[in-house]
Amino acid sequence: MTSTTEPVTAAHGRPVAPSHGALRPLGLDDVSIEGGFWGDRQELNATAIIEHSEHWVERMGWVANFDAAVEGRLAADRRGREFSDADVYKVMEAMAWEIGRTGNREMDARLQALVTRIAPVQEADGYLNTKFGRPGQEPRYTDLQWGHELYCYGHLLQAAIARGRTKGDDLLVETARRAADHVCDVFGPGGIESVDGHPEIETALVEFARYTGEQRYLEQARLFVERRGHGVLGDIEFGRSYFQDDVPVREASVMEGHAVRAMYLAAGAVDVAVETDDSQLLDAVIRQLATTVARRTYITGGMGAHHEGESFGSDFELPSDRAYSETCAGVGSIMLNYRLLLATGEAKYADLIERTLFNVVAASPAADGEAFFYTNTLHQREPGTVPSDDEASPRASSSLRAPWFEVSCCPPNVARTFASLDAYVATSDAQGLQLHQYAEGTVRAAIDAGTVAVRVATRYPADGLITVEVTETVGKEWTLSLRVPGWAASGAELTVAGETQAVSPGTVTVHRAFEVGDVVTLSLPVAARWTAPDPRIDALRGQLAVERGPVVLCLESTDAPTIASVNDARVVPELDDDNGHVTVGVRPLAPVDESWPFGATGATLAADAERVTLVPYYSWANRGPSTMRVWLPVAGADSVVPG
Amino acid sequence: MTSTTEPVTAAHGRPVAPSHGALRPLGLDDVSIEGGFWGDRQELNATAIIEHSEHWVERMGWVANFDAAVEGRLAADRRGREFSDADVYKVMEAMAWEIGRTGNREMDARLQALVTRIAPVQEADGYLNTKFGRPGQEPRYTDLQWGHELYCYGHLLQAAIARGRTKGDDLLVETARRAADHVCDVFGPGGIESVDGHPEIETALVEFARYTGEQRYLEQARLFVERRGHGVLGDIEFGRSYFQDDVPVREASVMEGHAVRAMYLAAGAVDVAVETDDSQLLDAVIRQLATTVARRTYITGGMGAHHEGESFGSDFELPSDRAYSETCAGVGSIMLNYRLLLATGEAKYADLIERTLFNVVAASPAADGEAFFYTNTLHQREPGTVPSDDEASPRASSSLRAPWFEVSCCPPNVARTFASLDAYVATSDAQGLQLHQYAEGTVRAAIDAGTVAVRVATRYPADGLITVEVTETVGKEWTLSLRVPGWAASGAELTVAGETQAVSPGTVTVHRAFEVGDVVTLSLPVAARWTAPDPRIDALRGQLAVERGPVVLCLESTDAPTIASVNDARVVPELDDDNGHVTVGVRPLAPVDESWPFGATGATLAADAERVTLVPYYSWANRGPSTMRVWLPVAGADSVVPG
């Protein structure tokens, strides 16, 4: 592993702050998104998503569980699933980043009020959980498979890190520290030699070690990563692969089992590997992710092909209609890819972050920020029904976004990601700045020669033009790096000082003695394009997708009122992109009414193609019940018996 | 509904004996399968499957639960899931039919021994269940969603019916009668106004009413059918459609939810409809099944496209690799289709019985009868691992047949179906005999003019020639009917008295004054043929299957040692059938190693095709771990970006 950066201090509002790596993270103090696609999402988060989430964790009684604990009303009065404490912590993490980002004082008061309801529940030895350990409850740590106690601590620690890195130590951080000490006391050497069924504590402990400087937390995280995969958890109907307890992390060749668990675990493993200089462990995760991306990832960046077990499928098993692609797995993938970006500096990790942000995370919240997708299907066959505004929904069976879920990990995961999104935009190293995600805003960083800063102006992804103006510089040469996305295989151009050159996917660098006002422009070929699937993906044979820049498009029935069903659409290869208004030619399948569906003699299509608009996948299902598909069957590709 | 038959009495070893309908059932006393494909399965059942099942219900402690109940050791000593009593009853039903079929005295003693262990558990009011109602157990009927108490009674009644119809009343029948009375007392008018989460009691109560003549049981079944669909059960995460409690049976348009539940319920609804002359209810089920067969059924006859909830998917959602196609859903489909065959006389129901018997039920047991498929996938992507001989397996995650399951409904369901299979072969009416399934053996029936009988000689399905010789006749004209399967669209021929004519799918009749020794031959075109899927099935686009007569074939990796994976096979349209040795031309996909699977530029195939043998789907996975696919991608059908 390269080690070109200096240790960072516990400041800057950085969600992730490795002691070393190829790139240095920047934080909310260094980067500011100001408008545009992501600025709009941050505004929605600030004005709707976070408050909506606060409202629902109260309404569901998940915060009141803490009150009930203090008042001695547990087990009787407990509500929600075994992991509901964690959803409260995730909302608090989102609030903490948001307060750090904007200085919202009212929200700060609300966060402090939440902390004062939670902290008193902590027991003398640091244990903190509303579900276990009281009369009428199961004893502590008796159900590590499903109990989620360490998972809940993990999110408590993440909330505390957000608070500490933006405001400094307070009661939340103290509470987290006592919990982390407790975990080390109970699960350290000589203690319970096991792990949590749901990873999360691993990455949280490493980050808390980075924040506090306490190496004991890192060592505990290392123990959790190393123990896993040796059958330390009980066997379950899904099999131990469900929680990655069948193969040790450093021996696995691909991600498997529950996708969120796999991603969180891998993020923790990278953290441990970086801090312990364990290149074998780091390489193992890199290899697993590479295979997973090549064979087990949807075009949206979504992960998880099975509803059952919310899990990865086999290689190339990527059904559109049963895509699980949990929003939280998308968040987990971004966590993992960001850590690998910092460790290696390789653009492919920023590529997948971009794809996943636009096509999974941005797809989850409704336009009003008050309803969410938990799963992110790529093919909605039936319009389905509108979920209740008043009740939490089952996690995966609603076809429209729902306001909340009985298992509601996803909405607060979106909230904490949006609130801390600035950090994912850019990094620095000793020699300069690297732009990874393109958003309107500013980036400022200390490099060896001093402080440099740029302002980015762009309408990306609506438009491919990205203008970077130097606003602060040093009196010598430094390097500005820009990512050319993997999808921009041809047509990308970089202009520096009036000179334009074609550039290829990867990282392009401009090394010069910049002056304030210097402008570098990157032009990316965002016009709509066809994409064909790997021939080994059975579910996609004879189909094509349309992408525009980093955005996956889809056919939504709302835009095709004359076609009976998106299921019956067949596209002809006529694609038009009029400044972002994308249309394709569609020839609908003629109605068929056979009593047995095997023995077809060919598909009969309407004679003339009609033009139908495609819309960004992230925007679908905002106009009422609809059907939708990302992958479009091509006219003529249906099976015919050889004659 | 037509009503051409007279009431049948409680004899003849008939599993189903409606009071009227288009066709009269025959039973184990009337039909005898003697050798051939199904004779071999009955022999395997007699010598292996039934004993294996007896052994495992003992070994798992599911019979011992009854002993523990008598000895006051419950709740402490109970083992198995909440429905384990039912698996014991199903094994008993299989034994009862087998004893009726063969007169096996040793098995009769074993069955009686089982009955004497179970009967004493019944309480004074008729309640009988090892899971509920004792100190330390949940109270009776407090969990109708998941408790399966009525489901267990249903299988108790079915076992008693098998016993009563083959041997007459005994302690098992008495026990069942007390249980049925209890159900009417508790769930009748003024009682608990609900149903069981898992249907089965409905069809069992109607048949028990037919057996005993007690109309109260029929009325109770009617109440259960009518109550369902009005949200009488609690809501669950899967949604009420899981147990068909969202839409009343007579209003539903298609089968939905848990496939076994749907089939058992529909069978009960047909029974109620027939006995109460409720043509609206009968038509509703007929309509639902027609849509289900046209849109939600696998080429194997298998039902259930989702692992999650073991349920039907949407229309045309039929993924091969995630096919659930539970063996029990196949059995349930045969139950339903047989009842509709009796009610309507339509050949299409016998068609689906044939398809499902050959390609679902026959696929479940291993060649040695000591391991079973619970689910029946149509595409095995990875060879997987050999299940333990010593332990029960998870129901759906093993890729090879397992000796037993924690949830082990399927093996005894296969056993009771094989043991009573004779009944499905033929029926009678006032004018003659109808042959529905072609098996070596004899059929004898009383018609208006007297008794007629035939001997069937055939190697079907290996060969298409079926020879029917009259062995007993009456002194006037009568009608022999033969089913021409739906798959025999062209090439079927009937020969009567030396005259051959082409016949089409459906029912062909020969009406004449038969003499003993007269021969009618039906020749079916069983040679291997290509089958194309409905263009609306996304999972099958660009693929073809090969069928041979009623048998679905598959490509198993064992037969293609030179091809890296069946996933990479591409077929060319060269199909050869050399007396049942079927081969196709295969051009394997060249190895590809892309880092991202979207953006393919086309599939590269090996230049030359090699010939690979296809084997019957029912026989796969008998030669060690393998990969397998029923649907074969066609060379040239992979997606390519238009350019």
Description of the molecule:
- Two copies of one chain form a homodimer.
- Mean pLDDT of chain A is 95; it is low at 1-10.
- In chain A, 60% of the residues are buried.
- The first copy, chain A, has three domains: 34-379 and 387-424, Glycosyltransferase (Alpha/alpha barrel); 426-523, Immunoglobulin-like (Sandwich); 529-633, no CATH class.
- In chain A, helix 5 (149-166) runs parallel beside helix 7 and helix 9 runs parallel beside helix 11.
- In chain A, strand 4 and strand 5 form a beta hairpin.
- Chain A has 13 helices and 21 strands.
- By secondary structure, chain A is α+β, with helices and mostly antiparallel strands.
- Chains A, B: Keywords: Hydrolase.
- Chains A, B: Residues 529-633 form the Non-reducing end beta-L-arabinofuranosidase-like GH127 C-terminal domain.
- Chains A, B: It comes from Cryobacterium tepidiphilum.
Summarize the structure.
Two copies of one chain form a homodimer. The first copy, chain A, has helices at 36-59, 64-70, 84-102, 105-118, 149-166, 171-187, 201-212, 215-227, 259-275, 279-295, 327-344, 347-361, 410-419, and strands at 24-25, 31-33, 379-380, 426-429, 432-435, 441-447, 450-458, 465-472, 478-484, 493-496, 499-502, 506-512, 519-523, 529-531, 543-548, 551-556, 571-578, 581-586, 610-616, 628-629, 632-633.
